[in-house]
Amino acid sequence: MGKSDKNREWQVIVNPNAGKKKGQKDWHIISDLLTRYGISFNHFFTEAKHHAIELASNIIDKNNRKILVVGGDGTMNEVVNGAFRQKKIATTDITLGMITVGTGNDWGRMFNIPLDYESAIRVIKKENTFLQDTGVIKFYSGTDVKERYFINIAGLGFDALVTKRSNRQKEKGHSSKALYFWTLLRSLLSYKHTSTSIEIDGEKIKNDTFTISLGIGKYSGGGMMQTPSAIADDGLFELTLVKKMRKGEIIRSLKRLYNGTILDHPKVEGYTGKKIKIDSDPLIHVEVDGESLGHSPIEFDILQRSINIVQGIIDA
């Protein structure tokens, strides 16, 4: 196969377990639609957690530059990590597309990726690309320092606890927006605030903190807007800091997460920055793109306009 053929052909990474096994159940529908729309492709099924990292890295090592994810935000995160871990092809020469079969679709919501399979495949066919930012996080897992890339949102504190508990439910085959909201409310009863020290491009901020969100994209948790002003290619994280609050006040303010007014709350502060360091007492945990990672101390850096993604277009 010639180089030009490799540049046209999509390599499809399918997570069969995504969306209560919709990846497996619906693959025949998706593959038939890809063929009907004249999209040339090869496909690979993930076999375990983190397998998509290895698959993506190996695919790109073979000079392929276009990967289509059939899965959820977590699968896309793994593919992004595979793209950055390989060193053969510049990530700015790699294009990622997505057909969502997961439950959240938060990354796809930012870029107008339809949930309907045929509409999503029309988006892939048009191949309207956008060069977006990528975040890099260094964190601790016990005494080990680890690194991970992400393209949507990182959450620390309460957000990380809700994500961890929601992921446990997903692993048991239980997942829905209602269950996520119930997990959020249940976690609220047990969560304690954390004393945090945050450094944003050299500026230091200390607070008793309930939760922190750090966004390249706007959406998380199935449509919440914790970083409503995030711009995906400006080379800046948007950081939303929610200070210590009474539980009743938090519950009354939950609607702000969905209507984009969270930054108007008097106990919420918004910042932007390129390099962010976070430490805490006690340890604060972190998740990125819905994947639970480790704990503080944590460092974030941003790689501006570092990977191509296929986006939908809003009709006028």
Unreliable parts: none
> What is the CATH fold-level name of the largest domain?
Tumour Suppressor Smad4
Average pLDDT rating: 91
Distance between the termini: 40 Å
Helical content, roughly?
Answer: 25-40%
Structural class: alpha+beta
What is the radius of gyration computed over CA atoms, rounded to a whole number of angstroms? 19 Å
Work out the strand percent: 35-45%
Q: Which oligomerization state do the chains in this entry correspond to?
A: single chain
**What is the helix tally?**
11
The total domain count is 2
Number of strands: 16
Question: How would the global form be characterised?
Answer: globular
SSE succession: HEHHEHEHEHHEEEHHEEEEEHHEEEE
Strand order of the largest sheet: 7-9-8-14-16-15
- Using the 3D structure, state the CATH architecture of the largest domain: Sandwich
- CATH class of the largest domain, named Mainly Beta
Characterize the main sheet.
6 strands, antiparallel, barrel
Verbal overview:
This protein has 316 residues and is of the alpha+beta class. It has 2 domains: 3-127, Probable inorganic polyphosphate/atp-NAD kinase, domain 1 (Rossmann fold, 3-Layer(aba) Sandwich); 134-304, Sandwich (Tumour Suppressor Smad4). The chain has helices spanning 3-8, 18-25, 27-36, 51-61, 73-85, 106-110, 117-126, 158-171, 177-190, 247-253, 255-259; strands at 10-14, 41-45, 66-71, 95-100, 129-141, 144-150, 153-157, 194-200, 203-215, 219-220, 224-225, 237-243, 268-273, 276-281, 285-288, 291-310. Strands 7-9-8-14-16-15 form a 6-stranded antiparallel beta barrel. Strands 10-11 form a two-stranded antiparallel sheet. β10 (219-220) and β11 form a beta hairpin. The longest helix is centred in the middle third of the chain and has 14 residues, at 158-171. The protein is globular, with a radius of gyration of 19 Å. The N and C termini lie far apart (40 Å). The model has no long low-confidence stretch (mean pLDDT 91).
